Amino acid sequence: MNREESMVHFRHTTSNVALDRMQKELNALVDTCKNQDEKALFAREMNDFLELFGRYITASKQTLDWDKIQSPTESQIIPYSTLPPATTSKDLLNKLCVLKLNGGLGTTMGCVGPKSAIEVRGDLTFLDLTVRQIEYLNEQNGSQVPLILMNSFNTNLDTKRIIQKYVNHNLNILTFDQSRFPRFGKDSMLPLPSTYDDPRYNWFPPGHGDLYEAFDRSGLLDSLIRGGKEYLFVSNVDNLGATVDLSILQYMEQTKSEFIMEVTDKTRADVKGGTLINYDGSIRLLEIAQVPSNHVDDFKTITKFKIFNTNNLWINLKAIKRLVESKKLSLEIIVNPKTVSETGEKAIQLETAVGAAIKHFERSIGINVPRSRFLPVKGTSDLFLVQSDLFQLQHGTLMMNPKRQFSTVPLIKLGTEFVTVRDYLSRFKSIPQILELDHLTVTGDVYFGSNVTLKGTVIIVANHGSRIDIPSGSVLDSKIVSGNLWILDH
Using CA atoms in the order 316, 322, 326, 330, what is the torsion angle rounded to 10 degrees? Predict the structure, then answer.
């Protein structure tokens, strides 16, 4: 055995030892679950984690051969404008389900509980808007499109309590929980939890790529298929542009595509977003984690990679069932190092992305959609946009104000003083009018009065220890305001 063969043998032996130790620990974890119904599901969950862990310790660094990466062909990315006009019938809509990825908390915006419960337009939450959208869709078409929420163990209890307020609505709301996987020690390679009921900080939800197995494991996938459902529209609950599009649904049925990913043109704000590529003749999702370090700058350019994944996905339900049963879904692993704040322990959690499955489905394509279908609210800068006069609310859907002369939205950068929703709201007597705004940057201790109008490029910088108050009724047109300005309203 030469040196290279010896190293391969050593790695293989080491991997097997780690896998055996992990399996024993997981078996012991399953034995601590006393409820027999829960135990069976938990055992299947731990088997799914073991498969992911096994791929993690045996796989080499998941990068692609850069020389094989090509731009998608014209047949792989379809312009939205070329889709036939929608003549969708009630029968086709009755084959559709809408699934919102609802596993995230609102902690990055200083909120407690599910992010979907944050009020984003008046007193309406993400979830309220979604319910309104689908109710209106069903009312207009006489259809019965259900809303499905994929929760995590962080959001499931709160979400089930919140949706009780829709009990008298004419909408079928279904829920299931994604997996609860154990974090494992970076050095020990052993799971952090020792019992089924261990504290929450020792577990993690493994990314939205877990949708396929969790959906099947819940029994809901089988139930929907038996009920005549065929298509699933998936999107992030915080993407207010992700509404049911009848043209895309119709196109999916006509072409028998099993997977459609909505992509849109990349801007400089989207340089880290995943993109579709042609790799060895097949379409697949390229995430920044898969890019060799010496090509990351190439990946971030908007000249070579012109589109990015919105995470609005249309998927055939029977195809999901086929791939899960045949264990054909092998999604690229996203390694997420963590320091457990409660214990200080260095840990690892393994995640996957739902869009990475595109390579496994038949007749998969991307559709280049208008930017209006990608309106996420990741922070208060985004919240500022959707709460402004830039948008109008129609049946739960945000529509660009026709008085806006540009099809693009302004670039908004609010400083650290605006990060939490509470601080953000305290700094505006009312959201400024921004129909003619191109760019807004605000840093420092800044407060806005009511009925402020912003136009062009506006930069407001309060120096350290200073405060700027923008008086009510002010009109700032391509202005730079800095220093200290405190004008009391009268």
Answer: 0
Q: Using alpha carbons only, how large is the chain's radius of gyration in Å? A: 24
For 268-313, the pLDDT digits (tens) are 777 777 889 888 888 999 888 777 778 888 787 777 788 899 999 9
Q: pTM of whole model > 0.85?
A: yes
Contact residues for 97 (Cβ-Cβ < 8 A; gap 6+): 145, 146, 148, 224, 229, 231, 232, 233, 317
Task: Say how many C-beta atoms besides its own lie within 10 A of residue 420's C-beta.
Answer: 18
The per-residue pLDDT of the chain, averaged, comes to 90
Residue 162, H or E segment: helix 156-162
Pairwise CA distance, residues 182 & 26, whole Å: 9
Residues 6+ apart with CB under 8 A from 326: none
Domain that holds residue 476: 380-486
Which position has the token pair 């990314």? 207
Q: Which residue has the tokens 């459609």?
A: 260
Question: pLDDT tens, 65-87?
Answer: 788 888 888 889 999 999 999 88
- 147 and 178 both lie in a single domain: yes
The yes-or-no answer on residue 115 being catalytic is: no
- Count: domains in the chain: 3
Same structural domain, 368 and 401: no
Closest to 446 measured CA to CA, from 461, 468, 426: 468
Instruction: Please tell me whether residues 294 and 349 are part of one structural domain.
Output: yes
| CA distances, 486 to each of 203, 468, 489 (Å) | 49, 5, 10
Whether residue 232 is predicted with pLDDT greater than 60 in this model: the reply is: yes
CB-CB contact of 105 with 151 (8 Å): no
Residue 62 has a pLDDT of: 53
3-state secondary structure of 286: strand
Q: Which of 165, 304, 378, 403 is catalytic?
A: 378
Shared domain for 425 and 481, answered yes or no, is yes
- 449 neighbors 471 (Cβ within 8 angstroms): yes
